[in-house]
Amino acid sequence: MAKHPAPKKCANAPCDCIPADGSKYCSAHCEGAGNQTELVCRCGHPGCSGDLSNAR
Ligand SMILES: [Zn+2]
Ligand SMILES: [Zn+2]
């Protein structure tokens, strides 16, 4: 049972969304962005901490 203790979170660095079970990314956007370093996330999920449009 060598499961990673890391919190379940989208593998796209700026994104904090929770991916679906068995998926590393919360969305196709993040999957496409996964191989490059983005400073913002545009997955479009409400509450995503990487989405600047959600910032106050
Ligand atoms: Zn996101
Ligand atoms: Zn994501």
Number of helices: 1
| Secondary-structure-derived class | little secondary structure
Largest sheet: none
Q: Tell me, briefly, the overall form.
A: globular
Task: Estimate the strand proportion.
Answer: under 5%
Bound molecules: zinc ion
Q: Whole-Å distance between the termini?
A: 41 Å
Rg over alpha carbons: 11 Å
Following the backbone from N to C, one meets helices and strands in this order, namely H
Please give the share of residues in helix. 10-25%
Residue windows where pLDDT falls under 50 for at least 5 positions:
none
Count of β-strands:
0
Nearest-integer average pLDDT? 80
Domains, number: 1
Can you characterise this structure?
The protein has 56 residues and is largely without helices or strands. The chain has one domain. The chain contains 1 helix and no strands. Helix content is 11%, strand content 0%. It binds zinc ion (ZN) (2 copies).
Could you give a quick summary of the protein structure above?
With 56 residues, the protein is mostly loops.
Secondary structure layout:
Blueprint: H1 28-33
The structure holds zinc ion (2 copies).
Task: Name its key features.
little secondary structure; single chain; globular; 1 helix; binds zinc ion
